Amino acid sequence: MICELNDAVARIERHLLDNDPLAVAQRCLTMPVAHFHAVFRALSGMSPAEYVRRRRLSLASSELAGGAKVSDVAFRVGYDSLDGFTRAYKRWCGCTPTETARTGCAKTLPPITFTITVTGGTPMEHRIVPMPAFSFAGVMARVPLQYEGVNGAITELAESITPEQREEMHRLQDIEPREMINASWDSDTGFIEEAGELTHLIGVLTTADAANCELTLVPAPAGDWAVFPCEGPFPETMQNTTARIYGEWLASSGWQLRESLIFSFTRFDPERPSIAYSEIWIPVVRTT
Fold first, then answer.
1. Global pTM value
2. What number of other Cβ atoms are within 10 A of residue 166's Cβ?
């Protein structure tokens, strides 16, 4: 996977000033695009789209410091207007393009390189679970995409579930894990950035082919799932575990994401309100 990430970066660099260098890089991926974006973000701290933007601004900064005209540089790195270029450049560099041209001081970002660094090594408990084809049965809604903290819109969705719907979910639930699960997909930005909305479902797993009480069925194909248990302060522990799955486990495990929905469930401890046990279920396929 590390080699594939570096190959993608090399393609981005070769096509950096093309109309869509990210699309060029993604066409050559063997891993799912969602997997690429998730691992890239986890390892680099930025999305691939943000990397392209920063690398273009880095190139612009070097050219401005070398005496190039602001208008020429703006259009060369993909901006349709000087105002848009100036705003983006100032946010990234802390000064205007004109100031960089005047002082000759550039801010640069070298091309990124992914490596695996072996440190103390904190174990990640996980298990691989083969699953038959099933469906997610539940209520769903479009909610704001939010990477950290409790998502108020998801809380409202959970509170909207009627007693009749809960009874129907209990009737349908016939496959492990027999828990109320959460699943998110179909982000407006493809999960590239923390913006827009996504579809979120709260429900259960079932092999039934029909549901009542206005519950929605979303099918999931048969396959393997990597299951990651975690326990601690909620939601920070589960969010940190998710980041480690993408940044550490998927980067070197010999498994990669396959097409299906990632889901999780959480059990709260009534005696310790801030502590929760969670499991994150990731659809995977072996690569080695």
1. 0.68
2. 13
